[in-house]
Amino acid sequence: MCQYLYIQEIIGTFATEIRRRAVMKTVNQIIGENLKKIRELSGFTQEQVAQSIKIERSTYSNYEGGTREIPYTILEDISNLFGCEPFILFEDNVQTNNEIMATAFRISNLGENDLKEIAAFKDIVKSYLKMERIAQNEAE
Fold first, then answer.
1. Where is the signal peptide (predicted)?
2. How many domains does the chain have?
3. Region for 54 from its dihedrals, namely left if φ exceeds 0, alpha if ψ lies in -120 to 50, beta otherwise
4. For residues 38 and 104, is the Cβ–Cβ distance under 8 A?
5. Among candidates 5, 104, 115, 100, which has minimal Cα distance to 51?
6. Are the C-beta atoms of residues 80 and 119 closer than 8 Å to each other?
7. Model confidence over 89-115: pLDDT tens digits?
8. Which structural domain range is residue 124 located in?
9. Tell me, what CATH number does 34's domain have?
């Protein structure tokens, strides 16, 4: 009887781990789909994004494909480049898709310095909007 309970516990633990991994894969896929969508709308290549955030193109490709979990620091770098809040990349709904499209900035023939300047400007705008939201919340 004791062996049976032990086996049941192992099976339960294994099933929990499988479910956890399935959820993570779903989250990774959502982030990946959003990364790809905003990158394409912005006119960036995977290579340009990877160079801008100083990672390998293959690593970035794995993030977009949802096959690799993305560290939050990299997620912040990418969201700064695209000028969006990191949480938007976790969402999987129409409203979020509209926000992603609104932040997209189409580029053509821009160099790495241009991309960095655009990212810095987007960061300034993002900070201003965040301060404006805080001021509105305090006023209420």
1. none
2. 1
3. left
4. yes
5. 115
6. yes
7. 888 765 555 655 665 555 555 666 777
8. 2-139
9. 1.10.260.40
How many contiguous H segments (helices) and E segments (strands) does the chain have? 6, 0
What's the CA gap between 44 and 65, in Å, rounded? 16
Instruction: State how far the Cα of 66 lies from the Cα of 51, in Å rounded to an integer.
Output: 19
Q: How far apart are CA 98 and CA 46, in angstroms?
A: 22
Short-list 100, 20, 33, CA closest to 66: 33
The predicted-structure confidence for 15-63, as pLDDT tens digits, reads as follows 666 666 555 557 889 999 989 988 888 888 999 999 989 999 999 999 9
How far, in Å, CA of 85 to CA of 133, rounded?
13
